[in-house]
Amino acid sequence: MLGKLKNIFFFPVANYFKFFAQIRLKRWNPQIIVVTGSSGKTTILHLIESQLQEKAKYSYHANSAMGIPFDILGLSRKTLLPAEWILLFILAPFKTFQKTFSEKIYIVEADADRPNEGKFLARLLHPDVTIWLNIGRTHSQNFEKLVSGLVTIDAAIAYEFGYFLENTKSLAIINSDSELIVNQLQKTKVKVEKINISDLDNYKLDKDCTEFTINGKNYKFKNLLPEEVFYSLQATFLLLDYLQAKPDKLFSKFQLPPGRSSILKGIKDTTIIDSSYNANLGSMTTLINLFKAYPAKKKWLVLGDMLEQGRFEQEEHEKLAAAILSLDPDRVILLGKLVSTYTYPKLKSVFANTDKLQAFNKLEDVLDYLLHNIKGGEAILFKASQSVMLDAVIEHLLQNKSDGDKLCRREKYWVIRRKQEGL
User: What is the rounded CA–CA span in Å between residue 413 and residue 337?
Assistant: First the structure.
């Protein structure tokens, strides 16, 4: 019932804030760069930030039809509790005519999680440049009603993201290896820069760094980055060329936010790879492929449900099993109803009569299992949709408790949720 009410009032409420945001945006009048797609947007945003630094404003933690108007107005949700909304409604008109931001460039991470959200944001922003590098079944349950004999779920999601191309004024930077994205180019008449995997000469992953060789040039990062980040690197260089900005080829100021392949020291000399911020099949597969290349003798996976998949949830979770088997991990720990129902049976036939596979429905049971079975030296990858809250488990496995500040979901709402889960 609550979910239905949220859907009914989502756009009427969003339009209230959009009305004031449009006025302030027109007064500000920055050059607008939209970063969109189903996953990896935050990585691109931070790659661009490492280059432009204070020359631009960035829409941190704001990518929705609600969040972006908030960001333009200088509003933010701090506790994520319902009572905040009263103050936000009151403040919006007053924020409209306050002094605008000083930056002349606005880098916006924009999503399209439901029908009409892409159109809503594209028509608010009218970006000068759109960067769109991937498409996947994130929040696919919201698009089910658009599926027919002629329209697939993937095409329906891509069409919504295509509104950003339709409303772009100068340049579109796209992944030309994605047929779904290429099919949407008919919506735009602006210049299009296409990125192709053939430009990647080599990809190398070490324990605490990643190296890309692109068109004969080497780029090294002190982060664990999947091979797909190649597209983000190329997009960043193309954007800098458009902006006539000189690149820092060392990316010396690049830093990802918590929960995106963060490397943390765990108990008993374990290595924790925290990618617990969110998950869909595309990002799950990407991280599992990264883990394949990661140099470790003992590899454990702790994976949770991929939520909001609607009638495709069985298909997506069964495909997850195939990705897991391609890694052949030393141990797989599953958390949640969906992975237990759909992923576990596909793995059980392969892992029969072994202790390599476990499935749980409670966070505390996963934590208890890990505490009792970690022997030492394991590399453990954590990934799930955000509501699964795997960060709550990671927090108890840290060697240095002060590293808890490096985890995602520290807001009051999530603190309350963790307590409710007994963690």
Answer: 23
Residue 256 lies in a domain: no
- In the three-class reduction of DSSP (H, G, I as helix; E, B as strand; rest coil), residue 100 is classed as coil
Same domain, 73 and 148: yes
Q: Are residues 17 and 85 in the same domain?
A: yes
Same domain, 287 and 189: no
Number of domains in the chain: 2
Q: Is the Cβ–Cβ distance between 148 and 142 less than 8 Å?
A: no
Q: How many helices (H) and strands (E) does the chain have?
A: 15, 15
pTM: 0.88
Q: What is the pLDDT of residues 110-128, one digit of tens each?
A: 999 899 999 999 999 999 9
Say whether 380 sits in a helix, a strand or coil. Answer: strand
What is the Cα–Cα distance from 303 to 154, expressed in whole angstroms?
Answer: 24
Confidence band (pLDDT; 50, 70, 90) for 2? Answer: very low
Quick one: 1 exposed, middle or buried, by C-beta within 10 A (0-12, 13-18, 19+)?
exposed
Q: Are residues 221 and 275 in the same domain?
A: no
**Closest by CA position to 143, among listed 41, 135, 51, 355:** 135
Q: Confirm whether 184 is domain-assigned.
A: yes
Condensed to tens digits (0 to 9), the pLDDT of residues 265-284 reads 999 999 999 998 888 898 99
State the Cα–Cα distance between residues 137 and 144, nearest whole angstrom. Answer: 11
Last residue in a domain, options 180, 209, 243: 243
Residue 200: closest CA among 181, 221, 176, 228: 228
What distance lies between CA 196 and its chain's CA centroid? 22
DSSP state of 199: G
d(C-alpha 89, C-alpha 384), whole Å: 33
- DSSP per-residue letters across 351-411: STTSSSEEEESSHHHHHHHHHHH--SS-EEEEE--GGG-THHHHHTTBSSGGGGGGSS--S
Task: Give the integer Cα–Cα distance in Å for 225 and 205.
Answer: 8
DSSP string, 158-179: HHHHHHHHHT-SSEEEEETT-H
Structure tokens at 227: 């091979």
- Domain membership of residue 383 as a residue range: 262-420
Residue recorded with tokens 């997506």 = 316
Q: Select from 125, 327, 294 the least CA-distant residue to 225.
A: 294
Please state, in angstroms and rounded to a whole number, the distance separating the CA atoms of residues 246 and 243. 9
Q: Which DSSP helix (H) or strand (E) runs through 212?
A: strand 210-214
Handedness of CA 397, 398, 403, 406 (dihedral sign): negative
